[in-house]
Structures are given as C-alpha cells and as structure tokens.
Amino acid sequence: MEKEYSASEKQQVFEQLEKKQNRLYLQGKIIVYVIAIINIIGAVVSAFTNFNLITLIVQIALSIALLCGVSWVRYFFVIGAGLSGFLTLYLLFGHIDFSVHSGIVIYLVLALIYSITSCIVLFASKSVSEFLYAQKNG
Predict the structure, then answer these.
(1) Are the C-beta atoms of residues 85 and 98 closer than 8 Å to each other?
(2) What confidence category does residue 77 fall into, taking pLDDT thresholds of 50, 70 and 90?
(3) pTM of the model
(4) Which candidate, 41, 79, 82, places its Cα nearest to that of 59?
(5) What DSSP string runs through 36-102?
(6) Element containing residue 137 per DSSP (H, E)
(7) Are residues 106 and 39 in contact, defined by beta-carbon separation less than 8 angstroms?
(8) N or C terminus of the chain with fewer C-beta within 10 Å?
C-alpha cells in the first residue's frame, strides 16, 4: 500500500530536487567555462607562437560550441584531452632530457594534470552533463 503525500511534502521534495539541479547546473557551468577559457587562452598563445589564424578561429568556435551544449564537441574535447595526455606521458617518459630545462618538465606535468582532469570531468561529471543538457535544450 502506497503512502499518500500531502501537498506540502510534495512541494518540499520538489524544492529539494530543484535545489540539487540548480547546484549541479552551476558546478557544470563553472567547469565548462574554465575548460573553454583555458582552451581559448591556449589557442591565443599558440597563435602568437605559430602564427596560425585558422587554428585560433577553429579553437574559439569549438569553445563557443562547447559552451552552447553541442554534445559532439564535448566528446571531441574528451578525445583531444586524452590524446594530449598520452602524448605528454610519451614525452615525459621517453623523449625529454630532464637536465635541459626544468621549466619544460614543470609545464609538461601541469599539462598532463590538466589533460587527465578535463578528460575525466568532461566525460563523467553529472554536473557537466546537467549544464550541457540545459544549454542544448533551453
């Protein structure tokens, strides 16, 4: 036999659910914006060092698409971060002379941490899913 809930109990459960959804949305928004902004900053820095305007435009467009909730761009970022992580590991453990410059090693370790973190968070985070779903579907 099912218990009947009063209108106030139903309202309280609904408010708790809405509060949880809002919290997930806000966390996802922060995560996605940080990743998109880091991607844009990296693209701008790369454009100054490599003088490649097309790459800059593509990276900015992909970042904007991620912010808008385009789902294939999310997985594109996940794959890119995963590949970047593997490449960084390859460089760190096989093809870098640590005595040359410690700044390069520090940069590579930070890049590895960012790649792994962004890959996992974009792929598995419920808050990112909630934010991107809301962006996509209004």
Answers:
(1) no
(2) very high
(3) 0.82
(4) 41
(5) HHHHHHHHHHHHHHH--HHHHHHHHHHHHHHHTT-HHHHHHHHHHHHHHHHHHHHHHHHS--TTT-H
(6) helix 126-137
(7) no
(8) N
